[in-house]
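To illustrate this point, we now present one chain and its tokenised fold:
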Amino acid sequence: MSLGLIWFTLADSKLAPNFNLTGVLLISMALCADAAIGNVQEKAMKLHNGSNSEMVLYSYSIGFVYILTGLLCVGGLGPAAAFCSEHPVKTYGYAFFFSLTGYFGISFVLALIKLFGALVAVTVTTGRKAMTIVLSFMFFAKPFTFQYIWAGLLVLFGIFLNVYSKNKDKMKLPSMQDLRSRLLTGKKARLPSQNV
């Protein structure tokens, strides 16, 4: 699913002439990290029997250290602080509302992880991102490329694999040998997956 979202980003970069390769690389890394973080959080919550609030505290604290280190390395902390001091109401006000909604969002995701597991949580968050991309085509005029179709199919295939991995015993797909024998004999029998 994450590869499908990365493919959407790459399709955007081919259509827009002013795309920054660093931005494409960073968003691709963020999508891969987002796919892995659910498993890491689920393992940590089971290992340490931690609450959702503890997970938010530690996840965001570690993220803060990474971002601060990156800002210090590239020299972006000084200009950011100067900009915030020039526009305090907008920057700190927006940051407050962004943080508040982010907290509710991450609490919801952590509740999903705790109740249903990381796979369901990653599927829900990736589906939300894919829906955001679809809605952006509906509300904003964008040029279209066939790569968007392939990316969407890759996301749907990822969702199918998720559902199939959870329901293997209910959805018995025929083997390649069964399919080949059916094609050679010309039988019009129902596939086992159609009986579900």
In short: The mean pLDDT is 78.
